[in-house]
Amino acid sequence: MERISKGAKFYLAFVMIILYAPIFFLIFYSFNSGDSMVNFESFTLDHYKAVFEDDRLLIILINTIIVALLSALFSTIIGTLGAIGIASMRNRKLRNTMLSMNNVLIVSPDVIIGASFLILFTMVGIKLGFTSVLLGHIAFSIPIVVIMVLPKLQEMNNSLIDAARDLGASKRDILTRVIIPYIKPGIFAGFFMALTYSLDDFAVTFFVTGNGFSTLSVEIYSMARAGVSLTVNAISGLVFFVTIILVLGYHFISIRKTKVGVRK
Amino acid sequence: MSENTIISFENVSKSYSDGTQVLKDVSFELERGKFYTLLGPSGCGKTTILRLIAGFMEPTEGDIFFNGKKINKVPANERQVNTVFQDYALFPHLNVFENVAFGLRIQKVAEAEIKQRVEEALKFVNLAGYGVREIPEMSGGQRQRVAIARAIVNDPEIILLDEPLSALDLKLRTEMQYELRELQQRLGKTFIFVTHDQEEALAMSDEIFVLNEGNIQQSGTPVDIYDEPINRFVADFIGESNIISGIMVRDFVVSMNGQEFECVDQGLNPNEKVDVVVRPEDLELTSVEKGKLVVTVDSQLFRGVHYELSTYDEAGNEWLVHSLKQADVGAKIGLDFDPEAIHIMRLNETEEDFDKRLESYGAESDEK
Question: Domain of A143: which CATH number?
Fold first, then answer.
């Protein structure tokens, strides 16, 4: 590959700085012993301490994680089966229609999805709270899983299924022994996408959550509205830190995989 | 239907929903333990026949029998048939051992027996010790063998091979032809091999079915089909040939371009229009005076074993000649051939009539 020029390097660095500056600004002031982001007085970990001493906040954190894990799990199961269904459709028109309907759900604004869920849940009579948030998250994650799994299915050679049938496999055997192992990377990718979408969702949760139940993003939002507190900065700093660890972890796993692949 | 018949097709037709008919009223019987080849150009219906036997398709009309039982609606996973696919269709997420063991695991065979049978199958295809390899580590020829091992390990009655050699290079392909033939003889199973490569078909088969446009054109041993093609299509498809239209003047005499030649065919109507086939290797270079035919050499290719000459007679017919001797391009030469080299094909003759006619020659020569 051609080496990038100095100008291009400078440009890249510039863009990266612009993108990361606000986050670092936020994190920087989370160590401020004063109570505003105007001037930095001295270094302190008080705000982090406040986060960990705040039981309410910890419960919200646990709620967020539970909702994310559960919604990712259910949406992965439903989305994978849906993708298999779409991929096996013979009728091309019908298949493309299904796919487009799936994609519309991904690109449509969260506010609309959130508002429509709110109407639906109140009409059906589901109590707003954990259940409604979980259902909402599962619903908006399914199209994402479908879109992550489908390419793997399309890449799969149909003769593999013929071969499995030829060797005596029933429909169930084909699904569990051939299709699912083959599309496993897509399923994992879909699961993690659903997980991150659920973790950072604000709009849908904001609409469908009720009294006594909140997730981190909604909570940060209301804290920030209530007035500037550096606790928000501390939480953001922690979330950012966890994100970095996750990304690094993913990076090292994928490196190990490619190395194994090369050895083969 | 004889005791030995394993598969029989009775008036089988297959059409797709869009109306295209890929098989037209096909009937045949296959005997146990033989090596059959379905040969034809792409789109002739040979793969359709294979898929009908495997159970991936159902016939639109007609019946398929397996060991005397009708199997039209029996699904693929319940048939005693295994296929070696064109692209091998090995499972990429499983290693070699698990690929071969796949069918046995589905049947819930005991672990110890699986191990023993898989290792035996791998040994059979000369891949002993390769069990732990992953599929991407294997070369094309090795994958081919894994696919064969995966088919034979289930001990099916019939093994179907769908152009399994087409992805290999020439040398490996020739090697695999020997191996497949030998494997079939050692296993004693019925092999049904689909190919568009006439050399493969001639080299390996006990019997060849030549197909075109959904019909069986001719079936017979490789020698029969090569020496006595039934029509222009078969003669042209199997090996290279010179096909000239002619007129059967009387028994043992055929005329091409107004010139009469001695031949060994008889029993046709006098002055009947026919196609005459002469194989290029049956033509011999000689001097203009001695030649039965006089032709001008148009071009010459060196093919390694022989020279391939493209020549034209005075009427403008092309004569392909395979010769060990070189000729000068542009020169006039004579071509000599035996009466036996001439093979007469009646126009639009059915396979049944054709076989009868050939048999009558045999009977008469026996009387003599």
Answer: 1.10.3720.10
> What is the Cα–Cα distance from B212 to B229, expressed in whole angstroms?
14
User: Tell me, what CATH number does B258's domain have?
Assistant: 2.40.50.140
Q: Does B82 touch chain A (CB under 8 A)?
A: yes
Q: Looking at the structure, do residues B38 and B94 belong to the same domain, yes or no?
A: yes
- Beta-bridged to residue B313, according to DSSP, are B295
| Contact flag A182-B92 (C-beta cutoff 8 Å) | yes
- Chain B residues in contact with A159 by the CB 8 A cut-off are 85-87, 89
Whole-prediction pTM value?
0.78
Which of A157, A169, A177 is nearest residue B89 as measured by Cβ atoms? A157
3-class DSSP assignment, residue B271: coil
Contact B154 A165 (CB under 8 A): no
Residues 347-366 of B with CB under 8 A from A: none
Give the whole-angstrom CA distance, residue B79 versus residue B69: 12
3-state helix, strand, coil in chain B (%, to 5): 30, 35, 35
The Cα–Cα gap between B294 and B62 comes to 52
A165 at B interface, C-beta within 8 A: yes
Question: What pLDDT, in 10s, does the model give residues B161-177?
Answer: 998 888 888 888 888 88
Q: What is the pLDDT along chain A (264 residues), one digit of tens a residue?
A: 567 788 899 999 999 999 999 989 888 888 888 777 777 888 888 888 888 888 888 889 889 999 999 999 999 999 999 999 998 888 889 999 999 999 998 888 889 999 999 999 999 988 888 999 999 999 999 999 999 999 999 998 888 999 999 999 999 999 999 999 999 989 988 998 899 889 889 999 999 988 788 898 898 888 888 876 788 888 888 888 888 888 888 788 777 765 554 443
Strand B307-313 and strand B318-323: the pairing is: antiparallel
Q: Which amino acid is at A124?
A: V
Q: Which of these, B267, B297, B288, lies nearest to B362 by C-alpha position?
A: B267
The parent domain of residue B319 ranges over 240-366
Mutate to test the interface with B, among A166, A173, A188 (most CBs of B within 10 A): A166
A180 touches B: beta carbon within 8 Å = no
B235, part of any domain: no
Chain A contact for B86, CB < 8 A? yes
Q: Which residues contact B178 (CB under 8 A, 6 or more apart)?
A: none
Distance of CA A251 to the CA centre of its chain: 17
Query: Hey, is A31 helix, strand or coil?
Result: coil
Determine contact, residues B245/B273, Cβ cutoff 8 Å.
yes
Nearest to A130 by CA among A221, A219, A58, A66: A66
The amino acid present at B291, given as its one-letter code, is: G
Find tokens 């900065």 and name the residue.
A233
* Tokens 């440009």 belong to residue: A11
> Within this chain, do residues B190 and B256 fall inside the same structural domain, yes or no?
no
- Number of separate domains in chain B: 2
